[in-house]
Give the backbone structure.
Amino acid sequence: MRPARGGGGGTKGEALRDQEHGQEHGQEHGQEHDREHAREPVHGHEREPRRGRPRSEAAERAILQAVVRLLEEGEPLAGLSIERIARTAGVGKATIYRRWSDKEELFMDVLRHIEPPEPPLSGTSGLADIFASLESMRRRGLAQRNSALLYNVFAQMKTHPKLWGAYQSTVIEPRRVAVTAAVRRAVAAGELRADIDAELIEELFVGPMLLRTIHRKEAPLDDDLPERIIRAVLEGLRPRDGEAGDTAADPAADTGR
């Protein structure tokens, strides 16, 4: 714990500790004391609070790990309260609310904490970035299959509309946008056809991986799956010359349209 400075800073810290006595642990007292120092004027200038300090990062890690620990012990999402999380992490409720506005926002960061990280995309090579995104999806699928914690969290999350909506908007939608942007780069580079809607092309690439990782838990997720999906989309599904008999020139003819 950092010693109090002379002057008014020590008095502030003591008053805050008295106010939160019985609510927060000794570790939290030190964190609150540091935050007060961060707000005090220095040489006539107001110093802004900083989240990046080691003590602050340690508190954030403790909170995330506390949620994971409670979930691993079988606590359902609906049963997790901010008070319980704060007690398990050894911090005060105020520390949690400074970082997350509600439980849903906190749970989103917990998911990011325990899921495989997003892959870095080049932003230049369209097909390479599509491959990287598909490989990331494959690894996430494997992680969910191999982790009872992840599997249970996702199963419970779907029964919480606000949390599921937040996951869709902050995780799923940015991935879709990223792959669609990669498709457009590949089109601009002449790697993909320009006469097909980019969002449809994105769905042709991503759809098979989503099917295997979400809807077919028993389906294999082999190491070469992203490459095989990309190759199948690029080559198309028509039989090669000599592999089949007559094929319809108009695919709608086979559907009766």
About this structure: The first strand starts at residue 41 and ends at 42.
